[in-house]
Amino acid sequence: MALQCGIVGLPNVGKSTLFNCLSNARAQAANFPFCTIEPNVGVITVPDERLTKLVEIDNPKRVVPTTIEIVDIAGLVKGASKGEGLGNKFLANIRNTNAIIHVLRCFENDNITHVDGTVDPVRDKGIIDTELQLKDLETIENRIGKCQKQATAGDKVAKRQYDILCRYKEALEQGLSARTVELSAEERKVVWDLNLLTDKPVLYVCNVDESAALNGNAHTEAVRAAIANEHAEMLIVAASAEADIAELETYEERQMFLEDLGLKESGVSRLIKAAYRLLDLQTFFTTGADESRAWTFRRGMKAPETAGIIHSDFERGFIRAEVIKYNDYVELGSERACREVGKIGIEGKEYVVEDGDIMHFLFNV
Question: What is the pLDDT of residue 73?
Answer without folding.
Answer: 83
